[in-house]
């Protein structure tokens, strides 16, 4: 029972619930909410969590999306996606705030589903779907982490013989250890570092694109959209998917549940902090990457920095970019893991 049923008439949290930090009577919290979604954070902590969940290395694929859209459509789609997702996230936040004021604070998407769609929808429909999506995201982050580790390894030792699966195992073990962090609140400092890291590798990627674009070895830039009509149509849909994936990872209810009372207005401040970073990173990487490589932009911008085994940017810049990406990937995976850890705790440790 993640949502609090108003039973005291005026919806004011009693002393025990305030001490618990959630505004929900302690005995009404399930084990997952009690241990993972501790409501102790400020709006700054909320901003750190949101930034880590949304601003991820997927933004390095934005130049590839521009290659299928062109300059005008690419910038318009990126701007519209920012406006739409900010409005959507803020709207969800306002709904959660309103219900909290009515004495029914919802801590998770499945709590919202139970209230909106009816009992059972959260547990048997929304919850499993969200869990499956997050599980896939964690697997994807682990694979990307292994790829980043291998890229760093090959830069340092071009003739190295270690295989990708070995790096995936190493990164997976590292994430298994980090997953022991008990709650969202315990991630606040890690996610602050993650915020700095996403700015760092975005600056590195932007600087690398500008450097490569002015290099004598830079490929000839062509901004036309090539291919047959069918290829272009599917390319547009692929670009939409890349942009939507880059923006659409905000875990709003779970993150808002970590805010200490009173909740009102804090999530909006956190979203403003998050989207300041979003605009600074997404647009700089997308525009500089597409400017430098045109319709030759690869699925990830870092791949464009090496052509036929030759680096277009200094080796040190390529190395630290990969290191920053690797470190932030671990923080992103940790946020997703923590958001779903409460489900496992609920099923395995909740008293029946």
From TrEMBL:
One of the record's GO cellular component terms: membrane
Keyword Heme set for record: no
Keywords, sorted A to Z: Amino-acid transport, Membrane, Transmembrane, Transmembrane helix, Transport
Transmembrane segments: 47-67, 73-100, 121-144, 164-185, 192-213, 233-252, 272-293, 313-337
InterPro entries reported for this sequence: AA_transpt_TM
Principal subcellular localisation of the protein: membrane
Domain of life: Eukaryota
GO biological process: amino acid transport
Occurrences of domain Amino acid transporter transmembrane (ranges): 40-329
Key word Iron-sulfur present: no
Record localization: Membrane
Pfam families (alphabetical): Aa_trans
Segments of this protein annotated with the region Disordered: 1-24
This protein's name: Transmembrane amino acid transporter family protein
């Amino acid at each position: 029972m993640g949502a609090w049923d108003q039973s005291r008439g005026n919806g004011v949290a009693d002393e025990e619930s305030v001490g618990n930090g959630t505004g929900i009577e302690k005995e009404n919290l399930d084990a997952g909410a009690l241990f993972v979604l501790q409501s102790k954070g400020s709006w700054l902590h909320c901003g750190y969590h949101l930034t880590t969940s949304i601003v991820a290395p997927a933004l390095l694929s934005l130049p590839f999306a521009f290659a299928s859209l062109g300059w005008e459509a690419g910038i318009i789609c990126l701007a519209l996606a920012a406006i739409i997702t900010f409005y959507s996230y803020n709207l969800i936040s306002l709904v959660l705030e309103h219900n909290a004021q009515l004495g029914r604070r919802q801590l998770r998407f499945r709590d919202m589903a139970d209230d909106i769609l009816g009992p059972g929808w959260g547990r048997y429909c929304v919850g499993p779907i969200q869990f499956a999506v997050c599980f896939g995201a964690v697997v994807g982050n682990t694979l990307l982490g292994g790829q980043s580790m291998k890229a760093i390894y090959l830069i340092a030792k071009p003739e190295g013989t270690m295989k990708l699966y070995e790096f995936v195992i190493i990164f997976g073990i590292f994430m298994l250890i980090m997953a022991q962090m008990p709650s969202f609140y315990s991630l606040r400092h890690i996610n602050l570092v993650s915020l700095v890291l996403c700015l760092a590798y975005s600056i590195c990627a932007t600087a690398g694109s500008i450097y490569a674009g002015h290099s004598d070895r830079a490929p000839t830039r062509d901004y036309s959209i090539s291919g047959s009509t069918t290829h272009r149509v599917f390319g547009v849909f692929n670009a939409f998917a890349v942009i939507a994936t880059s923006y659409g990872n905000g875990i709003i209810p779970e993150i808002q549940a970590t805010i200490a009372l009173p909740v009102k207005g804090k999530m909006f401040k956190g979203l403003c902090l998050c989207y300041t970073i979003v605009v600074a990173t997404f647009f700089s990487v997308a525009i500089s990457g597409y400017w430098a490589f045109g319709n030759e932009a690869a699925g990830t911008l870092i791949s464009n920095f090496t052509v036929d085994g030759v680096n277009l940017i200094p080796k040190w810049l390529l190395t630290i970019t990969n290191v920053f990406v690797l470190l932030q990937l671990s923080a992103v995976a940790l946020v997703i893991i923590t958001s779903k850890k409460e489900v496992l705790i609920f099923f395995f440790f909740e008293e029946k």
